[in-house]
């Protein structure tokens, strides 16, 4: 796995409206590294569609590192002018590059070279901040509110409660280098952990909050992983195409006496994260 380019990822952190645009010099450098329309006119006789030639040329430039991870590519209009084609042809080439995972498109912001994927390790003692910090990523979590719900059959099983028992449902967003990489939900038994939602908002850490309410340590009992398509809102927040599945992890953590502490459900941007299980 390629070591994450932290600075480039921070530069394009999701949700930053003040992202600097490419300077004229940067745009010129990228365009100069590409074949011009003459080369593509010569290639037409080979029976290769123009959009495929453009996709190949851009892919080679990216693979050779001539455009850095996180860097914004020239606009469709600039590329169309360079290649001597219409914008529809460029758009088709870019769609191919997106399917390859070489670029990502953010509506209203532009097209960027994709950054390296983050390995998120899951083991007996999975801790979000420790997990990422150990690998050179700056990790933060933002707790966004809570509500009380009645345990359904799945929650009742995970928390070892009766169906209908009161449960505290806490929402959060996880960031790596400022970019949103997952949306999450944590469920606690209200009878055991009433008030932990306030502590979570104060300390911003599940591990620290549990210590403050009398659980000094906990471990992962089970982890279930599956994929599903994102809702439009999830795709927008995670800066992920709506036609690309999310990774979903469902975990049950227990204290040293094997009593359930919480159930967690995280939806990960599959463009940014891959799950690694430690044996």
Report on the structure:
The protein has twelve helices and ten strands. The longest helix has 14 residues, at 50-63. The strands form three sheets. Strands 4-5-6-9-8-7 form a six-stranded antiparallel beta sheet. A hairpin with a 2-residue loop joins β5 (166-176) and β6. The protein is elongated, with a radius of gyration of 23 Å. Residues 1-21 have low confidence and may be disordered. It is 34% helix and 29% strand. It has two domains: 6-113, Arc Repressor Mutant, subunit A (Orthogonal Bundle), CATH 1.10.10.10; 118-277, Chorismate lyase-like (Chorismate lyase, 3-Layer(aba) Sandwich), CATH 3.40.1410.10. α4 crosses α6 (87-100), α5 (76-83) packs across α6 (87-100) and α10 (196-203) crosses α11 (206-212). The protein is α+β, with helices and mostly antiparallel strands.
């Amino acid at each position: 796995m390629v070591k994450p380019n932290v600075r480039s990822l921070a530069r394009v952190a999701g949700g930053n409206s003040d992202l600097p645009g490419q300077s004229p010099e940067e745009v010129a450098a990228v365009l100069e590294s590409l074949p011009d329309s003459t080369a593509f006119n010569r290639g037409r006789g080979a029976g290769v569609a123009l959009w495929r030639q453009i996709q190949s040329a851009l892919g080679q430039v990216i693979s050779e590192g001539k455009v850095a991870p996180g860097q914004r590519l020239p606009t469709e209009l600039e590329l169309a002018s360079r290649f001597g084609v219409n914008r529809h042809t460029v758009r088709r080439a870019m769609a191919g590059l997106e399917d390859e995972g070489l670029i990502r498109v953010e509506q209203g912001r532009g097209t960027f070279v994709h950054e390296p994927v983050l390995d998120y390790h899951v083991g007996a003692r999975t801790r979000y901040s420790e997990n990422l910090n150990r690998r050179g990523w700056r990790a933060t979590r933002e707790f966004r509110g809570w509500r009380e719900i009645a345990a359904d059959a799945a929650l009742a099983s995970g928390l070892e409660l009766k169906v209908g028992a009161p449960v505290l449902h806490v929402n959060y967003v996880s960031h790596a280098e400022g970019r949103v990489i997952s949306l999450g939900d944590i469920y606690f038994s209200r009878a055991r952990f009433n008030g932990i939602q306030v502590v979570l908002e104060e300390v911003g850490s599940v591990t620290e909050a549990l210590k403050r309410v009398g659980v000094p340590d906990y471990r992962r009992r089970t982890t279930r992983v599956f994929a599903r398509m994102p809702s439009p809102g999830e795709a927008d927040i995670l800066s992920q195409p709506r036609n690309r599945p999310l990774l979903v992890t469902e975990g049950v953590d227990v204290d040293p006496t094997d009593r359930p502490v919480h159930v967690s459900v995280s939806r990960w941007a599959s463009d940014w994260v891959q799950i690694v299980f430690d044996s």
